[in-house]
Design a protein that fits this description.
- It contains five helices and no strands.
- The chain is an all-alpha fold.
- The longest helix has 55 residues.
């Protein structure tokens, strides 16, 4: 008999010798690999995946409680605010001193200019010029 005839006989059930469609026994079953898909890659360089270990997180996040971290943050913010206020006060003081110095310098320059003008022209002409500029005796003396 030929192979085609053997398979026909096996399928039709005429031969009781062997069946081709026999279910596999437990001894011949291959166990599934321990992966989610049930198969293993044949690539030796491929590392099996596992849960991510978040080692890049700071130790404070891993170990300390939320309330403790919030207290620490509030303290740091209060310190920064105080430092900013002190810095602003210092800058304001420096600005005020510069303005005072500038005003004194302008007043000295004005006095110097008036003295030079007084030397050039007579007293009556200087008085007329002062009146014209809006200065009075009370301001000049």
């Amino acid at each position: 008999m030929s192979e085609a005839a053997d398979s026909f006989i096996a399928l039709s059930g005429e031969s009781s010798a062997t069946k081709i469609d026999a279910p596999p026994t437990d001894a011949s079953a291959r166990p599934l690999a321990p992966t989610s898909a049930g198969r293993v890659s044949g690539k030796a360089w491929k590392v099996p995946k596992s849960a991510t270990v978040r080692s890049h997180l700071p130790t404070g996040v891993k170990t300390t409680k939320w309330e403790e971290r919030m207290e620490k943050t509030k303290k740091e913010q209060a310190i920064k605010k105080l430092q900013a206020e002190l810095k602003q006060e210092k800058a304001d003081e420096i600005k005020r001193r510069k303005e005072v110095t500038l005003e004194r310098k302008k007043a000295a320059e004005e006095r110097q200019r008036l003295e030079e003008a007084k030397a050039k022209m007579g007293a009556r002409k200087a008085a007329r010029l002062r009146r014209k500029m809006g200065h009075t005796k009370k301001i000049n003396h």
